[in-house]
Design a protein that fits this description.
Elements: H1 8-18, E1 23-28, E2 36-43, E3 48-55, E4 61-64, E5 69-71, E6 90-91, E7 96-99, E8 107-111, E9 116-120, E10 136-141, E11 147-151, E12 157-163, E13 166-171, E14 176-177, H2 189-192, E15 196-199, E16 204-208, E17 213-218, E18 223-229, E19 241-244, E20 250-253, E21 261-264, E22 269-272, E23 281-286, E24 303-306, E25 309-310, E26 314-320, E27 326-333, E28 339-347, E29 351-357, E30 364-371, E31 377-385
Length: about 375
């Protein structure tokens, strides 16, 4: 097995250089109404803006998937890549920014490096400009690598999947209220509309509504369960963006021009972040997932594999447990259960630090197991390999 070993200082330099490129915001102009300004990187630790990836005034190179060629869009319509009204953004497993104009069923995939845009036309999303219930305002990347979007009323829950270079769109159905929600309804404007959605490592979704209410959505049952209201934010704070940071907490933002806040998902307690205090943010996106540690299936607290979202086809094995001795085996399985990679390593004095190169693995989700000499599973963890 080929190994790629890098000096520690080079890895640290690379980590710092890319830190700003994990977290993105859909930013609007400083007006009371929704007017798209740009997509930009955000530092979720100090709350400051980074590089502007694409703006309302950028030159747009749009490639139509259905027409298999470049297209020129009319910027005076709702159906264009720089439409005035936008409130959805996701950062996919291929390092693209995915978004939808509010009054359009069009889906756009922006390559953050080349600035080229793929237009995904679809007849699945039923959006009309005059029906606020139909507008898509929540979008995120799921742990399986697909993009998920929810309209205001929860009557459409879209899954946007990629196979090769082709995207497909499916409607998963209508999300309804859990019987326990009572007056905190997911489908009523005052309590459940707008905001954003994040995913966890267990296949669930959390909708942060504009009112500050939080709902847990299970894709299998299509139920939204009210789990509480965010505390620690101003009474008039409109929650319009949410994304998971590298610590596993949620960062929220407002379209009204306000500070960013970090929210503990387990307590829903928010604390204000330093930095810019008047950003008009309509949506947030990141590469992280909530409850990632909880989903690891780690039998031993001091054994880990990281990162779980793999950009450079390198993962790290870390062992710091005196009870683990001898040889261990790392196995990688695809979603069909096929063993696609196997590598042995030796633990000395309960300690191991080793990088593994995921040779020939295509983009997608995988399950990684670490077993001891007896075959006992010490760790089972999902990873997402990007291309």
């Amino acid at each position: 097995m080929k190994k790629h070993l890098f000096p520690l200082f080079l890895l640290l330099i690379g980590a710092n250089a890319s830190a700003q490129q994990d977290f993105f915001a859909l930013v609007g102009k400083e007006t009371p109404s929704i007017i798209f300004n740009d997509f930009r990187a955000i530092d979720p630790i100090n709350g400051n803006s980074g590089e502007k990836i694409f703006t309302a005034d950028s030159s747009a190179k749009v490639f139509s998937q259905s027409r298999n060629g470049s297209v020129t869009e009319d910027k005076n319509t709702y159906n264009n890549a720089q439409a005035v009204n936008m409130a959805t953004l996701a950062y996919d497993s291929f390092n693209n920014l995915v978004y939808m104009p509010m009054f359009s069923s069009n889906i756009y995939v922006l390559n953050a490096k080349s600035r080229e845009i793929t237009l995904i036309e679809n007849n699945v999303a039923r959006v009309t400009a005059c029906d606020i219930n139909s507008h898509f305002t929540r979008m995120t990347t799921g742990y399986d690598g697909s993009i998920y979007a929810i309209n205001n009323a929860g009557t459409q829950f879209l899954k946007i999947s990629r196979k090769g270079n082709q995207y497909t769109v499916n409607d998963l159905g209508i999300i309804t209220d859990d019987a326990s929600n009572g007056k905190n309804s997911f489908t009523i404007m005052e309590t459940g509309f707008g905001g954003d959605v994040i995913a966890d490592a267990e296949g669930n979704f959390y909708v942060f509504s504009a009112s500050g209410n939080v709902f847990k959505v299970t894709a299998k049952e299509l139920k939204a369960k009210f789990i509480g209201k965010i505390s620690g934010i101003p009474d008039n704070y409109s929650v319009n963006g949410s994304a998971v940071n590298s610590k596993g907490n949620i960062v929220i933002a407002s379209a009204k021009g306000a500070a960013l806040y970090e929210v503990d998902l387990s307590t829903l307690q928010a604390k204000q972040l330093p930095g810019e205090q008047n950003l008009h943010i309509y949506d947030l996106a990141s590469k992280y997932f909530a409850n990632d540690k909880a989903a690891s299936g780690n039998v031993f607290a001091n054994i880990d594999i990281y990162p779980t979202k793999v950009d450079e086809k390198l993962i790290n094995i870390s062992v710091n447990d005196k009870t683990v001795k001898g040889n261990i085996t790392l196995n990688v399985f695809d979603l069909s259960g096929k063993n696609v990679l196997k590598q042995n390593a030796s633990v000395k004095d309960g300690s191991l630090r080793q990088q593994v190169y995921l040779k020939n693995l295509i983009g997608g989700a995988y399950l990684v197991n670490i077993t001891d000499e007896s075959g006992k599973v010490l760790l089972s963890k999902k990873i997402l390999v990007t291309e």
